[in-house]
Amino acid sequence: MSTTDNTFPLTQFAHGAGCGCKIAPQILKEILQSSIVQPSKNILVGNNSNDDAAVYDLENGTALISTTDFFMPIVDDAFDFGRIAAANAISDVYAMGGKPILALAILGWPIQKLPATLAQKVIAGAKIICAEAGISLAGGHTIDALEPMFGLSVNGLIETINLKKNNTAQEGDVLFLTKPIGVGVLSTAQKRGVLKQEDKTTLISQLTQLNKLGEKLGKIKGVTAMTDVTGFGLLGHLIEMSQGCNLTALINYSCVPKIENITYYLSQNTIPDATFRNWNAYSNLTEISPEVNVMEAFNLLPDPQTNGGLLFSVNPNYIEEIKSLLKENNLEPFTTPIGKMISKTDKAVKIEK
């Protein structure tokens, strides 16, 4: 379904794009600093960690997962923007191993600049993705904003015993990633008007793909930690994972899946500004082997992802079960591990060839 109106290319009405809109890691850390103590009796996961969602213990063997995510357009098409923002928000529930049950819309729209009919198409796209996830878009809130923005507040459920966090990996665990990286590069190419049509198809397909596998991974005991890769890039989320469990992530760069044709756009220097922001935040925690294509790794590992893949650690005894699950869910290209967790070194992430 195409709803593009060439008069209103959405990315030209926003200064940021997708999860690249995130506030820089150092500034976010400063914002979240607080001495205020909050009630936490039933909070299993709160804002004292860098996890994907908050989790509340319902005290009946299940827990409520609650998250919110919104951003400015990463594509020009209103309908696709709605689909992408919805898939990205719902992903946080899947990243905790949960089942989404309900969504509410968050819409900011510059009424003086963009017609309400385009906002209607954004909502329509979100409803399509919510239906694919088996949930309703049951309400929400709108404001008249300076720039277009959209997202969802999503609730989900999980059996407490199956809850996955991003800071519980164990030494020796193997790391998997379920989508290729490079979304930020392609979206930047689109905003600059140099994205090829075949690569635009690839971009939209990945951005709208639900991370449903997370619900199934949540039921596997051997999956020890999980998160989804978004605005801080693969590197940033690896660092959150490794620092959270006091280990080091050893990554085989050649095994990291990358979007097809990505090297062409790198050669055109279509690099998001957020890539440099991310690298500045994480470079001192990262070691890259000289055998690795350092410039390519620098441009891709911190590349901000929107609705990126699930990054998860697996006990070695469960590797074959995970590979079978990936194949059953049409994710065979991602059955090769990208690295493993090793004992803590002076760096949070080490990149080898």
Structure explained in plain terms:
The protein is α+β, with helices and mostly antiparallel strands and 353 residues long. It has eleven helices and 13 strands. It has helices at residues 25-32, 78-95, 116-132, 183-191, 197-207, 213-217, 233-244, 262-267, 273-282, 294-300, 319-328, and strands at 43-45, 54-57, 62-71, 99-109, 137-144, 149-159, 174-177, 223-228, 247-252, 286-288, 310-314, 339-343, 349-352. The strands form two sheets. A seven-stranded mixed beta sheet has the order 8-11-7-12-9-13-10. Strands 1-2-3-6-4-5 form a six-stranded mixed beta sheet, covered by helices on one side. A hairpin with a 4-residue loop joins strand 2 (54-57) and strand 3. Helix 2 packs parallel to helix 3 and helix 4 packs across helix 5.
What is the straight-line distance between the termini?
41 Å
Residue stretches low in confidence (pLDDT < 50, at least 5 long) are: none
pLDDT averaged residue by residue: 92
The CATH architecture of the largest domain is Alpha-Beta Complex
Gyration radius from CA atoms, angstroms: 19 Å
Instruction: Please tell me the total number of domains.
Output: 2
